[in-house]
Amino acid sequence: MNEMERGGPSRRALIGWGGAGLALGAAAAGGGVALSDDGPSPAKAGSGGAVEFHGAHQAGIATPVQDRLHFAAFDVKTEDRAEFVQLLKDWTAAARLMTAGKPVGEGAYGGLAEAPPDDTGEALGLSPSRLTLTVGFGPSLFDRFGLADRRPAALADLPKFPGDNLDRSRTGGDLCVQACADDPQVAVHAIRNLARVGFGKVAVRWSQLGFGKTSSTTPDAQTPRNLMGFKDGTRNIAGTETARLDRHVWVSASDGDAKSAWMTGGSYLVARRIRMNIETWDRASLREQEDVFGRDKGEGAPAGKAKEHDAPFLKAMKPDAHVRLAHPDSNGGITILRRGYSFTDGTDGLGRLDAGLFFLAYQRDVREGFIPLQRRLAAHDALNEYIQHVGSAVFAVPPGVRDSHDWWGRTLFSKEA
């Protein structure tokens, strides 16, 4: 990967990010050559390596799933389109640096003593930890800045599903940032600094920390387990399966109409906070647990089979088994790419863990992916006895940042694009 210079206008000249903003090209001076159309390549240096920021698709989707997550949804506070566009450029410049393991702007120290530093400093001395930053735009953003006629039809509002008990304080958002890394401090540092850069223009609406990835996009890797103890994501799309990614995840130029052309190379993200009734689940018998999922708990083999990756015989499972209902063969081939994480957020005041799955799924069209799949699961899945969807959001994730002159959202906000 090409090394990127810290560069950028003088801190003393700008006195913070909130003025004219860092110039995109200068902040990434010397940094970056556009990658191939396949998008960012997987990290090759283990857990400490850096994932290439530039590419046709944003990193953090098909990228090998990291160990930790900090996800944040933001509300936009500014009414000035030019100011918001400058924020996206400033965020892009900061993201280039942080994903390369470098501090934002002039860093956490050594600048003007009378002004706040450009970087908060808690990631000093830490490796990049395969940090990826992925940006998405919520439906409500298209009510601003004259964007109403550019909202893709595929960015559909999610209906209320049976059993939903959504907390409005954990639902929606004008835009989101998904930070994934192998070090939780690196992920938190990234969201913290983007929020700082956006002060006065955006504000965090809600956020979620995640650990213990519950899906993998890496072939031959051990399938991770969710908090119910079962392997999750056995048939998930791998980052190397370009044909499946093109078919199910990446938006094509042939999708939709002119108002959604700016999304070519992007994807649509559904985020759901799913509370697990851990205490009730832990008192269920092993047989019941395995019947609920349709897999055995040890090997992860589908019912009636010996190995995890054996082709499932769906009729051997209970009619309301989760795997049977969610399988593409039961849903006309519907396939989504999952990047979920477990979470624990203390207790609910009644001695029960506030824990579960923070579900993240990418797809080519929400109307043909998550919505019909969740309608089926919400109505019939035996797992519903032990879970409840308590937070929800949907976002259009634009294509990747091609090179050092590009920025997040350029295809949406620049007429020449």
Biggest sheet overview: 9 strands, antiparallel
Please estimate the helix content: 10-25%
How many strands in all? Answer: 9
On the 0 to 100 scale, the average pLDDT is: 89
How many helices in DSSP terms?
A: 10
Secondary structure layout:
Elements: H1 11-14, H2 24-27, E1 68-76, H3 81-99, E2 132-137, E3 175-181, H4 184-197, E4 202-213, H5 242-248, E5 267-276, H6 278-282, H7 286-293, H8 322-326, E6 337-338, E7 341-347, E8 353-363, H9 370-380, E9 387-397, H10 410-413
Antiparallel strand pairs: 1-3, 1-4, 2-3, 4-7, 5-8, 5-9, 6-8, 7-8
Helix pairs in contact: 3-4
Explain this structure to me?
The chain is an alpha+beta fold. The protein has helices at 11-14, 24-27, 81-99, 184-197, 242-248, 278-282, 286-293, 322-326, 370-380, 410-413, and strands at 68-76, 132-137, 175-181, 202-213, 267-276, 337-338, 341-347, 353-363, 387-397. A hairpin with a 5-residue loop joins strand 7 and strand 8. Helix 3 packs antiparallel against helix 4 (184-197). The radius of gyration is 21 Å and the shape is globular.
Attribute tags:
single chain, about 425 residues, alpha+beta, about 20% helix
Q: Could you give a short description of this structure?
A:
This protein is of the alpha+beta class and 417 residues long. It contains ten helices and nine strands.
